[in-house]
């Protein structure tokens, strides 16, 4: 039967009261040591009306985190820093999962004692890295040795354990946007000739193994995965995305995951455009669990895709920045608040542009006519 954006949904073991998810949004408000700060608890609690919050991308290791003031989940201090955040969300009636992140070749050496980033192969991302000293050219990564892959998988396992200690409701594997898992998936960044390279089956191996590690910790019904199957993402691309992401979907289908999220950037999206055939229909035919679509949705488009069955839920990113009560605004048909001082305030570690956006009730506003 057709569903509404405002109907509840079971995302594995997580009971979401609506189908409007908060997508992961890097906001750079943690400390230099990647420890979450008090202001982050306020920010996430303000947005607890989402059916489910997917946390900002969170580093699984020092090696894997290359964004200034982004949070991590590899130290005890980081775990303790996340506890007030998850507590605040739960006290506000919300649910939150941690998105686990290894950036691979996107990590600039300045984050890791001058050592190069790691990737599927010795390649260099286009453009610039964000560092504590401003933008710097990306540097060539080194290929992970076969003997090192178990260590990286152990980092995923430990971060998943730490997410449980921190009070999250589950975890999401970041397999999208040209980061490490995506670098292994796609041919442009994976030039290996061993068990992790060449065929689609081999290139999907790290995705499969990392997912298995998270499932071992949490159970499949509290694990999700994010992929970006359409077009170039930070220089990661593939000549046959149907083959690559069809195999990825087949690998994930066997687990019975809580959900699979697909990022599908529009023409003004951060990580590329949709000047390529959409892969969600193919993935939908293979992956039978809840499917969440993301990027550049309006409320009307989201409602249509849920009603048609194209998606089971929609995750919204940037609209949640300036609309902490996004669910209620969409329900009321109200105008959305603009993102003021954006992108200047996206990554600036101050309260302005972060926790100072009013709700409809605080504005005393009425729905748009």
Briefly, what is this?
With 369 residues, the chain is an alpha/beta fold. Helix content is 30%, strand content 15%. Strands 3-4-5-10-11-12-13-14 form an eight-stranded parallel barrel, surrounded by four helices. A two-stranded antiparallel sheet has the order 1-2. Strands 6-9 form a two-stranded parallel sheet.
Question: Could you walk me through the main structural features you see in this protein, from its secondary elements to its overall organization?
Answer:
The protein is of the alpha/beta class and 369 residues long. Helix content is 30%, strand content 15%. The protein is built from twelve helices and 14 strands. It has helices at 38-46, 76-91, 149-165, 180-185, 200-203, 205-218, 241-253, 280-286, 299-308, 319-322, 326-332, 360-363, and strands spanning 9-11, 14-16, 20-22, 52-59, 96-101, 118-119, 128-131, 134-137, 142-143, 171-174, 223-227, 259-263, 291-294, 313-316. Strands 3-4-5-10-11-12-13-14 form an eight-stranded parallel barrel, surrounded by four helices. Helix 2 links the parallel strand 4 and strand 5 (96-101). Helix 1 (38-46) runs parallel beside helix 2 (76-91) and helix 3 packs parallel to helix 6. The longest helix has 17 residues, at 149-165. The model is unreliable at 267-276 (pLDDT under 50).
